[in-house]
Amino acid sequence: MPHLVTSHQGQPHVLAINDARRNAATYGGGKYVLPLRDQFAASVPNSNTIRIQGGDAMVCGRHWAIDGAYEDYTLDNGTPGYNRIDIVVARIETAPAEKVEIIVRKGEETAGEPVAPSHIDGDLLAGDSAAEQPLYEVRIEGLTPHEPVPLFEVAPGPYVGHVHDASDIDGGVIPVGRGGTGVKSLTGSTGLIHSLFDTSLPDAGYIPVFTEQWGDGGYMNKQTLRKALGLGDTLGALPIANGGTGVTSNAAIALKSYPVNAVYFSRAAANPASLFGGTWVEITDTKLFLGIYMYRRTA
Q1: In terms of DSSP H, where are the helices of 192-260?
Q2: What residue ranges of the chain have pLDDT lower than 50?
Q3: What fold does the segment set 16-150 form as a domain?
């Protein structure tokens, strides 16, 4: 029958495997040292000891730890003229009792190149009752142990340092406050940017604008306009479906600001088609201001 794990039932009912499965879904079902505390940093204070600092780890969703500052484990003496490799593992058992212990597995001595001993891999989530997490390899040449070599993988924090880009976006829109347009289609926006032809711009990085509220003419940085239209700073186009315009050139960006039937205002008798494309007709049957030319986009 179904088991409501997160519930009060008046008696013990949450098992270790319930917690292990949730941990595995968060961190993965492998064997990881967590990015906490000293992460089991190791040293060899003398020829017979490996010292492992405190840390935490996950083995198939089972959380284990060295809670103190450090623990010492014994390395057997080496033999002059011989070499060997020992490995240090954390052994997790779920039956007949649930426990963890640190084991130093002694390798075979040889006058040549030594080979590290094997360990039990195991998968506790698949029903195995034992699994071992390799922590360190220690090479011993004669009587001298070398510095421990880590064998474990440190798990990255699941949400630390993760950066999304446009390729991660599937559906939804990017709000204007985040550099998008806030709409999924070009017809979904009612705001227009009315340009005012003006040759007195700071430099080629700006375009003229005339406010929708019929205020004074001015200019806007092209990079600012790109951000307002959801294109980012300078790189590839943001798709229309994600709140962008789908174009990257300055002319195309400006044209996207004028949907069909939008009106363009200019002090010069220059058809805007010559500036950024599209099909325009001059409005001659009315004048809002003396010396201002008006063009309506038809296609």
Answers
A1: 222-228, 250-256
A2: 186-219
A3: Triple-stranded beta-helix (2.60.520)
